[in-house]
Write a structure and sequence with these properties.
By secondary structure, the protein is mostly helical. The protein contains two helices and no strands. The chain is 96% helix and 0% strand.
């Protein structure tokens, strides 16, 4: 065997194999690698957009929570203010009602006092008439007059 012919045949087969590989095998491999690289870069870009979207969403959520807390504090403050107004109105109404009750009681007391005075006047008048009647029935003498006044005092 000839070493040169074998070597030449092997080189020829190698070149044919290399040409065949470069023509038919290499392009699909390169295409697959390029597609994979494109998918990887798209995935990385999507991941970056997702990270940015997540950060934006987190800021938006924090802002929404802050606004919610502010609104809740505002609603609580309004509720407390309204409760204070209701309490103040109830106090004012109670004081007004108490004043009405006191005024009515004072008027009733005044009417009762007037009735009692009128009753006492009538009774004093009756006593005066009764005393005068007793005095006139007896003779007018100092000792009898003093006894009658003492009796009158006991009747009162």
């Amino acid at each position: 065997m000839y070493l040169n012919a074998t070597l030449l045949a092997q080189i020829t087969v190698f070149i044919i194999l290399a040409l065949f590989t470069m023509k038919f095998v290499w392009p699909p491999i390169v295409k697959a690698l390029d597609e994979r690289a494109a998918r990887i870069s798209e995935g990385l870009a999507e991941a970056e957009r997702g990270r940015q979207s997540l950060a934006l969403s987190a800021r938006s959520a924090a802002e929404t929570v802050r606004e919610g807390k502010e609104k809740a504090a505002e609603v609580i403050a309004q509720a407390e203010k309204r409760a204070g107004q209701i309490i103040d109105k109830a106090k004012a109404d109670a004081l007004l009602e108490a004043e009405k009750v006191v005024a009515a009681a004072k008027e009733e007391i005044a009417q009762e006092e007037a009735r009692m005075r009128e009753s006492l006047r009538g009774r004093v008048a009756d006593l005066a008439v009764a005393g005068a009647e007793k005095i006139l029935r007896r003779e007018v003498d100092a000792r009898a007059h003093a006894e009658m006044l003492a009796a009158l005092r006991l009747d009162l």
